[in-house]
Write a structure and sequence with these properties.
The complex is a heterodimer. By secondary structure, chain A is of the alpha+beta class. Chain A has 2 domains: about 100 residues, Immunoglobulin-like (Sandwich); about 160 residues, Roll (C8orf32 fold), CATH 3.10.620.30. Chain A has 6 helices and 14 strands. In chain A, strand 6, helix 4 and strand 7 form a beta-alpha-beta unit. The N and C termini of chain A lie close together (about 10 Å). In chain B, about 25% of the residues lie in helices and about 20% in strands. In chain B, helix 3 crosses helix 10. Classes of the chains: A alpha+beta, B alpha+beta. At the A-B interface, strand 1, strand 3 and strand 13 of A face helix 5 and strand 8 of B.
């Protein structure tokens, strides 16, 4: 599929701020399953934009604006081609021995451990045990855990924020895509499966999808020999060519779409608008 | 007359001054003669004057663990410690080798991680360290130098063998005491220097400045260096100010810096001035609130990106702490063999890793015979000295170790060497250590400017300034000195 994506972020401040400094993860990735053929970042007030590749392979941009400003507009526009091969296979038959024998696994240590947004405590372990017994097929567990989150958690925005913990989401059984991704990652890690946070977009075409009007997030598990397999617990769906991957990290903290600092009043407002459209086949 | 013949600790302690009951070692013969003619009262009143002067000059440090009256001086002892030229050369070569290996380790662990892939160091040990800076993975630092300034703590064991007790490769302090000690000793007791040719220490700031300039990005012809301090409340603020002043470079806090278009600038009365090298005396966590602690007001937003792009040199690099994590200390000899293909010139102290179940059992069963240290601790805090501990303290440490074994190591109690030290108007043996400093620019420079710390309490083995330690002037005999 081919998509055009416009992702607009606007910060508005009650009084002028100075010396704002912003880091963004907005550039869709290019890998074997998708190509980002065009990416442009427009910043107003104007700023010189710099870029680097982080340790997860994400392209990151950053910029600073020194003079006074009371609004900051960031528009990321991209054109992405996704290939139908993604999500075409349902992984199965991955046991712990297979995982441990894979030479990549040792280097994925950080994806098997708790991280700031993904605690793996007794609550998570108990929930995992309620979903499936231990020592089973890890691929089946990952998919079952994702399905469990979809069926038992209610998608409701405004009930959580960026500081909500995995245990709180499990207790409340409500949240948004980011929370569900963190819960699924925690469940996977509780079984020793390397799991990471994926941020990006989902195209809501013939089948309407939750999370299509904003940045989306899902979980990926490392399941040899398949490699990284994505599952979207918000829509109970293996990640396929309707998804556009922007960035991966240990959790949300590594890949938040925009984050920044400035000198000025403490509170401002943030509005985000995302439009994902199917591009005309050329 | 000072009674130098009073013999030190009984038993197996190496005496730095005396070769046997009455004979000073060759470097100390002349000093012994001079001291024999000094009136004890003159020594005592001179030291009192020196300590008062140090307090007036503000050569103080802060003890964080106490809530009141925390500004203290590091008490000065007037009896200098003397190294022969050859002995110092051996130590300097060993320190240089160690620093080169630690630097190679950092370069490796943040890039290819060969030493982990080849199983020489357990990956888990590195990744479980809170000193491992993941943000530095894949970041090329300028000139591949991470450890521009280090302080390697050495002790001499019962046999007189110098051993490394710990490496300090983050923001080691203490050089200001070295410079002050030499200055006050010369002014107050010039006669002690009679008959000695010793290496100067006062060129340290110039050597440091040269090292820092070599850390600049390639294009900078006259690199601008600044010293970055957390501010006046930091325990080593005096040293930050002294080094900035003696190098003739600005002393700045985070709020004095700004990043514009990925370049670092100092805000001055004449506008923004480009900064090429930051000699930082603040911890990694406080460098850039965008990448490290978001609640920090000490840092500079955007600094990490300017650094990542190679637009500013930083001494020391971010993430050097993994190299002095005490759980990795026991692998330093292996690093020397692995990266340099050399045999270690300086020995380690035997170290037990509590994350290994068998070692943990042994440590907990033998606490009264061991020294236990927190792997990320410093300043003598979070430490148990078995023979001097109470049963309650040992029980507490057994609990702490069981709860978090990765965070503790244990070492046998090393009887540090002793050196005559002024105590209550007489000379008495007190235990000492040594902190040489290494400067890593184009090459590794180990200036003959080392800090000797002394445990002022009788029988004590703890030399830390925050724990009742003092310091001595440390002399390195010049090559032309006939005792060299």
């Amino acid at each position: 599929m081919e998509y055009t994506i416009d992702h607009e972020t606007v910060y508005r401040y009650p009084r002028a701020v100075t010396e704002s400094y912003t880091v963004v993860h907005l550039q869709p990735r290019t890998n074997l399953q998708q190509y980002c053929t065009r990416y442009a970042l427009d910043v107003r007030p104007g700023a010189r934009v710099f870029s680097y590749v982080d340790r997860f392979g994400n392209d990151v941009q950053h910029f600073g604006i020194v003079p006074e400003h009371d609004e900051l507009h960031i528009v990321a526009s991209s054109h992405v081609v996704t290939l139908p091969t993604r999500g075409g296979t349902i992984p199965q038959g991955v046991d712990a021995a297979r995982l441990d024998a894979d030479p990549h696994t040792v280097e994925l240590r950080d994806f098997r451990r708790p991280t700031p947004y993904v605690s793996v405590g007794p609550t998570v372990v108990a929930l995992a045990d309620a979903i499936a017994p231990r020592d089973g097929d890890l691929a089946a567990f990952f998919l079952a855990a994702g399905a469990f989150v979809y069926r038992n958690f209610e998608y409701r925005s405004g009930t959580t924020d960026v500081r909500t913990t995995v245990d709180e989401v499990i207790a409340a059984r409500t949240g948004v895509c980011q929370d569900f991704a963190h819960v699924l990652i925690a469940l996977a890690r509780s079984r020793g499966i390397p799991a990471r946070y994926a941020s990006g977009y989902i195209f809501s075409g013939a089948t309407p999808a939750l999370g299509a009007d904003a940045s989306h997030a899902w979980a990926e598990a490392f399941l040899p020999p398949y490699g990284w397999v994505g599952f979207d617990p918000t829509n109970e769906r293996i990640v396929d060519d309707a998804f556009v991957l922007v960035a991966v990290g240990r959790d949300y903290g590594d890949v938040s779409p925009t984050r920044g600092l400035y000198r000025g009043p403490e509170f401002g407002s943030l509005s985000v608008a995302v439009a994902v459209g199917a591009a005309e086949e050329q | 007359m000072l009674d130098l013949a009073q013999r030190p600790d009984v038993g197996d302690v190496f005496d730095e001054f005396f070769a046997d009951a009455t004979t000073p070692r060759p470097n100390y013969v002349r000093l012994a003669q001079t001291l024999a003619a000094v009136e004890p009262d003159a020594l005592v009143s001179g030291v009192r004057a020196i300590n008062a002067a140090l307090l007036r000059r503000g050569v103080t440090f802060t003890v964080y663990a106490e809530s009141t009256g925390t500004e203290r001086i590091f008490p000065f002892d007037p009896i200098p410690r003397i190294f022969s030229h050859a002995e110092w050369q051996r130590i300097a070569k060993g320190v240089e080798q160690r620093v080169r290996a630690l630097n190679a380790f950092l370069c490796d662990v943040y890039h290819e991680a060969r030493i982990l892939r080849e199983g020489r160091i357990p990956r888990e040990l590195v990744y479980s360290s809170d000193l491992f800076a993941r943000e530095m993975l894949g970041v090329r630092v300028l000139h591949d130098v991470y450890i521009h300034v280090s302080g390697i703590d050495l002790i001499r064991d019962e046999t007189g063998t110098a051993r490394v007790l710990e490496d300090n490769v983050r923001t080691p302090s203490g050089i200001s005491y070295v410079l002050e000690n030499r200055d006050v000793l010369k002014r107050t007791f010039p006669q002690l220097f009679d008959g000695y040719h010793i290496e100067p220490v006062d060129d340290y700031p110039l050597r440091l400045l040269r090292t820092l300039r070599e850390a600049a990005p390639a294009g900078a012809r006259e690199p601008n260096v600044i010293v970055l301090t957390p501010g006046i409340y930091n325990s080593a603020y005096y040293e930050h100010a002294m080094l900035a002043r003696s190098m003739g470079v600005p002393l700045a806090e985070g709020r004095d810096l700004i990043v514009v278009d990925n370049l670092v600038y100092l805000r001055t009365t004449r506008g923004l001035q480009r900064v090429d090298v930051v000699y930082r005396r603040i911890d990694d966590d406080f460098l850039d609130p965008l990448y490290f602690r978001g609640d920090s007001t000490l840092g500079v937003a955007g600094f990490m990106n300017a650094y990542r792009a190679g637009n500013v040199g930083l001494a020391n690099a971010i993430g050097t702490g993994i190299a002095d994590d005490k759980a990795l200390y026991r692998f330093v000899p292996e690093m020397i063999r692995f990266y340099l293909r050399e045999e270690p010139l300086l020995d380690n102290v035997e170290t037990l890793d509590c994350s290994d179940p068998a070692s943990r059992r042994h440590v907990i069963d033998n606490l009264e015979r061991l020294v236990v240290k927190r792997t990320n601790g410093s300043g003598g805090f979070g430490m148990l000295i078995g023979p001097a501990s109470t049963a309650t303290q040992r029980a507490e440490f057994a609990r702490l170790i069981d709860a978090d074994p990765r965070s503790y190591i244990a070492q046998p109690v090393i009887q540090l060497s002793s050196h005559p030290t002024l105590a209550d108007g007489v000379l008495a043996p007190r235990r000492i250590d040594l902190r040489p400093f290494a400067l890593y620019g184009k090459t590794v420079d180990v200036p003959p400017a080392a800090l000797t710390r002394v445990a002022l309490r009788e029988g004590s083995l703890v030399v830390n300034s925050s724990q009742g330690g003092g310091s001595k002037d440390t002399w390195v005999l010049a090559a032309q000195d006939n005792r060299a």
